[in-house]
Amino acid sequence: MSHTRTSELNAVAQAGEWLAGAQSVVALTGAGVSAESGLPTFRGAGGLWRNRRPETLATPEAFAADPKTVWEWYDWRRSVHAGCSPNPGHHALAELERAKLEFWLVTQNVDGLHEQAGSRRILKLHGDLWKVRCLTCGREERDTRVPIDPLPPYCSCGGMLRPAVVWFGESLSEETLRAAFDAAARADLVLVLGTSSVVYPAAALPRVALERGARVIEINLEPTELSGVAHLSLRGKTGELLPEIVRRAFGGAP
Ligand code: BJW
Ligand code: ZN
Q: What is the pLDDT of residues 161-209, one digit of tens each?
């Protein structure tokens, strides 16, 4: 066995031990957790849509200038998502919730795959791809049409509908954000999974926990801005490493 493989196993074993001993756990997830279900991430390879970067589409300015194009991007994403199912990483998080008394899943993802996997204690920071909100009357409702026709869609009051997600420059729900930061401040272990850790305020969450003395474990294919300060930073797929860590913590290590 090579040295790398040995230290990888050690890191997984260490993570399992910390998870088993933790009283209060928070998992922060990003697009990487859904990548193994076939959903494109925002940054890096495969993040482009019609040669445009997601950051140029996920803004209120882009929507105001060209709602049809932004809606076409969301319509395309909804059609990709509709054919996807949760992967072992999502299932491991649902299992973790069942195993821990104090657990919160804080997600930046809007795809709904955590709920589909059975997670319930979810705080959704960036909204929901399957909800729409009226620009005129403010009504928000679930909308699972794929495709949506016509684009952009309109409310019964005549106002234009937008995706009920949080774009750059927009405020996150104050209530959800407070609950997420409270949970992070109480946690003794924070798992940071499949996120590039560049988008705020989500990226501040593990840092708050660190300041309060929590352990932080990151799982990502690549190093991120958090890697240098995390107690453990594992390089690999969440769908492979997380089930193994959860199994070691609760399923009895071999
Ligand atoms: C794998 C893997 C596998 C792949 N296994 N890993 C403080 C400092 C600087 C700037 C700001 C700040 N506070 C606020 C800002 C401004 C801004 C911001 O953060 N900008 C930075 C980018 C510089 N933030 C905001 O505007 C937020 N609003 C706000 O703070 O309001 C108050 C305010 C306003 C203005 C000024 C100051 C304060 C709102 C942010 C909303 C983000 N919205 C989006 C779109 C959501 C809707 C949609 O889905 O369409 O959220 S943008 C996009 O990025 C999306 C994601 O949730 C978010 C994070 O991305 P994520 O999940 O990390 O994905 P990727 O693609 O970046 O990374 C995937 C990772 O997975 C990679 O690392 C891979 O390696 C890895 N990976 N496969 C493990 N199998
Ligand atoms: Zn309306």
A: 999 999 999 999 999 999 999 999 999 999 999 999 999 999 999 999 9
Q: What contacts 84, CB < 8 A, 6 or more positions away?
A: 34, 37, 38, 39, 111, 113
What's the whole-model pTM score?
A: 0.96
What the chain holds in terms of domains, given with CATH numbers, is: 17-39+86-126+172-254 (3.40.50.1220), 40-83+127-165 (3.30.1600.10)
Residue nearest to atom 12 of ligand 1 (CA): 200
Lowest mean pLDDT among 100-104, 111-115, 132-136, 165-169: 100-104
Which tokens in the block code for residue 93?
Answer: 């998080």
The two structure tokens encoding residue 73: 């991007």
Catalytically annotated residues: 126
For helices 238-250 and 88-99, what crossing angle results, to 10°? Answer: 30
| DSSP-assigned letter for residue 204 | G
Nearest CA to ligand 1 atom 63: 195
Kindly state the tokens that stand for 237. 């797929």
